[in-house]
Here is the input.
Amino acid sequence: MCGKNTATAPAEIDRHGNSGKLEIMRRLLILILIGLPYLALAESPQGAGTRPEIRYLSIASAINPVTASFIAEQITLANNNRESGILIQLDTPGGLDTAMRDIIQAELNSTIPVIVYVGPQGARAASAGALITLAADFAAMAPGTNIGAAHPVAIGGGNQPDKTMMDKVENDAAAYARSLAQQRGRNQEWAEQAVRESVSISAEEALELRVIDIVAENLDDLLKQLDQQNYIRGGKILKITTADTQLITAEMNWRQQILNALGNPNIAYLLMMLGILGIFFEISQPGVILPGVIGAIAILLAFFALSTLPVNYVGVLLILLAFVLFVLEVKVISYGMLSIGGIIAMTLGSLMLIDSSEPYLQISTAVIAATVAVSASFFLFAVWMVMRTQKRPVTSGQEGMVGEIGTAVEAFDGKGRVFVHGEYWQARASKPITAGEEIEVVQLLDGLELEVRSRASQTAVAPQATED
Here is the structure.
């Protein structure tokens, strides 16, 4: 009996063990089959069953380093996320050459298609905006928009470059525009004319001259016309799919929005004037601290903003001269002549501060007029308050004792003790004074002695003078 049991036990254990392994393998297979769709979904760039995405940017300002950084950053993110494309809606009067080239470099190196749409209706792609549009895979415009006027202008200090240097800059920009048009299969002759002759054309003319690819009423119309259009990458012809595409809007963060606002000439000018006002207030009223701190911060922000603008150094010096004249008005009696000179210098400096013929780079005349008026009023008010304070009778120190009223501690004829301003003093008087009599301080003598006189005698003289 025992032998039989011993012989059959291993067979039963082996059978049950194999059955358990098969059960485990079956469950693993089921889990793998269930999980495969999810793995495919995780590795898919858009996700199975999801709508394709196009990143959408709206740029309605001058092209500056902040704008360039934002656009280049978004193009990189769109490429990393393997999105269907990136759409830039553009409305710009132009901007800096270096910022423009940063954006174009990001466009040319993008693996996904870049679409530039000059819109909405009434928008423009002037100067740097024209070349950014030329560099896109797909260039589109809304009706009623224009493109062109890409002639380079000098950006920098008050000294304008000579003709030879400007010719070099123009030739470089013309060659750059031709190369972009050639790479994207667009009108090279017009691209060069836009730089050399500052020509500008409408959306319909641009389409006819092969400067752009599409004229679209709105974004929906644009996406409809773009569907299955060809573009080239690495020598291969690819197609863009925009049917049933969702636009993912990307916006500047708060830091970029602040820095972008500082690029506005009006903001830069107002910051500089605020800084000067704050520092002037701190100089005229030492120890207040807060105006000085605000003024220093505003001046530094103004310097950052002005570094991207064509600043005329003579204008800056005139504004600083106005500041010096207002400070001297506090220290020197000029009967208002220094203040008048300061107002004139401030006005001329404000008008000359930005050295450019481009409207978007100039400071508004209304802003200059209002700022000069407010600043001049503040300076004059501050000067008047300081002068008024200086003319007040002294109420502290040795001079502040003159005119104080006190009481004679003892009767004396010549020298004695008096009680004035909460303290006991040695005093002299030219006439006898009785104990407890009210006295008035005439002057402070050497050795901290007071010269005093009787208030009673002063009061008695007044009626006699009236009777006479």
